[in-house]
Design a protein that fits this description.
Layout: H1 2-18, H2 44-52, H3 72-84, H4 108-116, H5 136-147, H6 162-173, H7 189-200, E1 203-212, E2 215-227, H8 228-233, E3 235-246, E4 249-253, E5 256-257, E6 262-263, E7 278-287, E8 293-299, E9 305-306, E10 311-317, E11 346-354, E12 357-359, H9 361-365, E13 371-378, E14 386-392, E15 395-398, E16 404-408, E17 411-415, E18 424-425, E19 429-430, E20 440-446, E21 449-454, E22 457-466, E23 469-472, E24 475-478, E25 498-503, E26 509-514, E27 522-532, E28 542-548, E29 554-562, E30 565-568, E31 576-578, H10 579-582, E32 590-596, E33 602-606, E34 613-618, E35 642-649, E36 652-659, E37 674-682, E38 685-693, E39 704-708, E40 714-718, E41 724-732, E42 735-741, E43 751-755, E44 757-758, E45 761-762, E46 767-768, E47 772-779, E48 782-789, E49 792-796, E50 802-807, E51 812-816, E52 824-833, E53 842-849
Parallel strand pairs: 11-14, 19-21, 29-33, 30-31, 35-38, 50-53
Antiparallel strand pairs: 1-2, 3-4, 3-7, 5-6, 7-8, 7-9, 10-13, 11-12, 13-14, 15-20, 16-17, 17-18, 20-21, 22-23, 22-25, 23-24, 25-26, 27-28, 27-32, 28-29, 29-30, 32-33, 34-37, 35-36, 37-38, 39-41, 39-43, 40-41, 41-42, 43-46, 44-45, 47-48, 47-52, 48-49, 50-51, 52-53
Helix pairs in contact: 1-3, 1-5, 1-7, 2-7, 3-4, 3-5, 5-6, 5-7
Protein name: SLH domain-containing protein
Domain SLH: 30-93, 94-157
Organism: Pseudoflavonifractor capillosus ATCC 29799
């Protein structure tokens, strides 16, 4: 009966943690490959097994959403299921509690059940916060109980060290292997899958109690001989070696498992990297008395996972596996002095694979190994020698047109021009998505499937050639042996033009393509113009423009043309424009399109109205609102709008780029703020906005804590915008420093305060914090006050809690350990709670010795 409860607890726990539907212990209709975001899942084996067991299907949109969290309401339902089974929560809805935020929650009945049985508690003020995330430690407690651990006896509850006890036992039981996050972090769906997977592979336990003078105590946990996964689903892990691929399926050795010879070969999809490696899969079966697989009823897994592989080394430079001759030829497997290419010795009877096919002795001896061949030496039996040699020789192809797909008789077909001769079944091609005409790709056909990868590339000018290698950006690249004409597109000894060099997996050149010049036009704001007059014989004038670019940087550039005409000092003809005509107020603070010629000079053209583009201005003193579509009351912007903001006057000017209405700062209406603005709109939506303002409203920072040493002593300084700021001595974050304030009336008290800032300056009145008087004890992770602070006299602390001791008389401050603090009836104590805490854990503790 106890094991049955464990099975039910885990199955339901799995469901509630992941927020998904239980389908049953049989294979699910869907596989992990059906999840649309499986590439974003970290714990792929765990999620695959959950799907294969039929526990999860994914979200309604077909995704798994690995980074989403699990909330407290779901946790309450989980615990109820663990203790009560599949129960109608409505029977608990009449239970009386003092919680005020759960009556309309979907999990009301589960929450009330847990509350009535002391499993959960609120914050003491009537709140449970059902939508907040369940933490790693809370989930670990539930799964430990599912394995058979006794929560009370193991001190998972009613104990100040409950969190430590849970995390310690969960670590020992292996539940946290591969689970990211600390105890108080919200558990993600990815992490939940991994934690449940670990629980499935953990052995169940039974608590054993004894008595001492009539008092029961836990003496030990008796560990069973089987895992919870086996007890629940009959799940048994088996391993096999991938010896090849046929029609995309793995050829496995052994081909069958169990005393009844259940076939596992040629049933599961394989990828090229699996060939020659040991893989893991799961079957439903029974174990014999020695814990070995007896009868295998059916295959659970729908995918394979590579077990740990000991790759001794990899080579891509064309060095042979064998054939060392002293002082003439090096190889990868001869351990002799002077052999710089040596990786590891070759084991007797080593197996060779080339492009997924096992080679016989003759073909292995003559296998193709050239620059670009990927050679992997693998130690499969962990004896330190290479017993598996994997060779991969890829072909180099260039797409002659874009990839096309179509459906014929409900079968997806794909055409990859330059790779496939015509439309083929899409199942026989991997990696074609997103490829376009002229893409250079590396391909290899394994087991009837063509695997495609886009070749990496470098771009630059060749600056040197040595021993048939080509120096680009300081790096020498050799020619690949995978093709006979790798440098066909490169003009011999061309040290002037730019080329794109495509590379194989060993960074050897497989193709060279000359880069043709093209004019790229971008947009910027002209802030100012300048001219450097030429003097002396042959002197020429230099015309300049100060540009504000899309990334917020400002640069003075040399200008050659404006409005399509060459800029000259005077006497312009029809193809020229005088500098004085350019350098006028109407051409400053406006958007221009620019391009850079081959000499690095800029050609500027003012952005003007077209059929779909409109250029308009924003009136001075207009208010700018952040996160508002009509940011100035007239023009419409969105998340893609680029805002370029000039802030300040005189020498105190900064430039900043913001993308999107949610990020642009607000500017108050009125004199002294916005001086001017320009908007470039396309089809009615602003693409670029320029704002010239003396100041912005700024983003207000969250409240922080400081200790004001003397409210009547301050230094007056400039605020950089023709105004004044006031600098006070204060203790901030445990350091005696200064606090800059916008107005003196904002500081009306000495002592501990909270404050908020705008652009780093205190922008509203500080608020005094009244500490509690008297500290009774600081030990064992618990802080006990003589008088209440914020309505409580006890708080928890941990290794992350920071303690500051402040002497109000001397103004000194120290950061200390909890063990260094002495109890006192006169010291003052204030506590800052840790973010998201549900058990009054302190983030910061101030211990203040009064001045008198």
């Amino acid at each position: 009966m106890r094991n049955l409860k464990r099975v039910l607890s885990l199955a339901l726990a799995s469901v509630m943690l992941l927020g998904m539907m239980v389908i049953g212990a049989g294979a699910a209709d869907k596989t992990a490959a059906d999840l649309t975001d499986m590439d974003k899942v970290t714990n792929k084996e765990a999620v695959s097994v959950m799907v294969d067991l039929g526990i999860i299907e994914g979200k309604p949109d077909g995704s798994f959403a690995p980074t989403e969290g699990v909330d407290r309401a779901t946790m309450a339902k989980l615990i109820t299921y663990v203790l009560m089974g599949d129960v109608d929560a409505a029977i608990f809805e009449g239970t009386s509690t003092d919680l005020t935020d759960i009556n309309t929650n979907w999990a009301e009945g589960y929450i009330k059940y847990c509350y009535a049985n002391g499993i959960i508690s609120g914050d003491g003020q009537g709140h449970f916060f059902p939508t907040q995330g369940v933490t790693v430690v809370q989930a670990a407690k539930m799964l430990l109980v599912a394995l058979g651990y006794d929560a009370e006896a193991s001190k998972y509850q009613n104990n100040s060290m409950w969190s430590v006890n849970i995390m310690k036992d969960a670590q020992v039981a292996g539940l946290l292997n591969g689970v990211e996050g600390s105890a108080n972090d919200t558990l993600t769906r990815d992490g939940a899958a991994q934690m449940i997977f670990n629980t499935l592979n953990a052995k169940t336990v039974t608590p054993k109690f004894q008595y001492d003078m009539g008092v029961q105590y836990l003496s030990e946990y008796v560990v069973s001989s089987t895992t919870l996964g086996y007890q629940t689903y009959g799940m048994v892990k088996v391993t096999a070696t991938v010896t090849g691929i046929e029609n995309g399926k793995a050829v496995l050795s052994p081909a069958t498992v169990g005393t009844n010879n259940l076939a596992i070969s040629k049933t599961l999809t394989a990828t090229p990297d699996m060939v020659g490696n040991v893989v893991s899969l799961y079957v439903k079966g029974t174990l014999d008395t020695n814990g070995k697989l007896a009868k295998a009823e059916k295959l659970i897994s729908t995918s394979l996972v590579i077990s740990s592989t000991n790759v001794l080394g990899t080579s891509t430079d064309g060095t042979k596996v064998t054939g060392y001759v002293a002082n003439t030829t090096n190889d990868l497997t001869t351990n002799k002095s002077g052999n710089k290419k040596y990786i590891a010795e070759l084991d007797e009877g080593a197996t060779y694979f080339e492009n997924g096919t096992k080679l016989d002795d003759v073909n292995a001896a003559n296998a193709k190994i050239v620059a670009g061949t990927v050679v992997e030496l693998i130690d499969a039996n962990n004896n330190g020698k290479a017993d598996l040699v994997k060779l991969t020789n890829k072909a180099v192809k260039t797409l002659t047109n874009n990839v096309k797909t179509k459906t014929e008789d409900d079968v997806l077909m794909v055409s990859v021009p330059g790779v496939t001769s015509d439309y083929v079944d899409a199942k026989t091609v991997s990696g074609y998505e997103g490829l376009v005409k002229n893409d250079v790709v590396l391909t290899v056909e394994i087991g009837g499937v063509t695997y495609i990868e886009k070749a990496t590339s470098v771009e630059g000018v060749v600056t040197g050639i040595k021993n048939d290698t080509y120096k680009v950006d300081g790096v020498y690249y050799a020619k690949s042996g995978l093709v006979s004409n790798a440098m066909e597109g490169y003009t011999a000894n061309d040290f002037k033009n730019t080329y794109t060099f495509y590379l194989d997996n060993g960074n050897n050149i497989v193709k060279a393509v000359k880069v043709t010049e093209e004019t790229v036009t971008k947009t910027a704001v002209v802030l100012d113009y300048g001219k450097i007059s030429g003097s002396g014989i042959g002197g020429t004038n230099v015309f300049q423009a100060q540009l504000l670019f899309e990334d917020g940087t400002v640069e003075i550039v040399e200008m050659s043309k404006f409005g399509g005409k060459t800029v000259v000092a005077s006497g312009a003809d029809q193809n020229e424009v005088n500098y004085d005509t350019v350098n006028v107020a109407g051409n400053e603070g406006v958007f221009v399109d620019y391009s850079v010629d081959k000499n690095g000079k800029y050609e500027l053209t003012k952005v003007a109205d077209t059929d779909d583009i409109k250029v308009t201005t924003i009136a001075a003193e207009t208010a700018i609102k952040s996160n508002t579509a009509k940011f100035d009351g007239t023009h419409v912007a969105n998340a893609n709008t680029i805002f370029l903001v000039k802030k300040g006057t005189g020498s105190n000017v900064t430039y900043t780029a913001y993308k999107g209405i949610a990020n642009v700062p607000a500017i108050a209406a009125g004199e002294g703020n916005l001086a001017s603005g320009q908007v470039v709109s396309k089809n009615g939506v602003a693409t670029y906005v320029y704002l010239d303002t003396a100041k912005v409203s700024g983003d207000v920072a969250a409240a922080k804590y400081a200790y004001i040493l003397n409210k009547d002593a301050y230094e007056v300084v400039s605020d950089g915008n023709n105004g004044l700021d006031y600098v006070y001595s204060a203790i901030v974050d445990g350091v005696k420093t200064t606090l800059t304030v916008d107005k003196t009336e904002y500081v009306g008290t000495n002592g501990l305060v909270t404050y908020v800032t705008t652009d780093g300056v205190v922008s509203e009145a500080v608020k005094a914090v009244t500490p509690a008087t008297g500290l009774e004890s600081v030990s064992g992770g618990t802080l006990v006050l003589k008088n209440a602070f914020a309505g409580k006299t006890a708080y928890l602390y941990n290794d992350d809690t920071v303690f500051y001791t402040i002497n109000a008389k001397t103004g000194s401050v120290e950061t200390v350990n909890a063990s260094d603090i002495e109890t006192s009836a006169t010291v003052q104590v204030a506590v800052v709670l840790a973010k998201g805490t549900t058990n009054d854990t302190a983030s910061v503790v101030f211990v203040i010795t009064p001045a008198v």
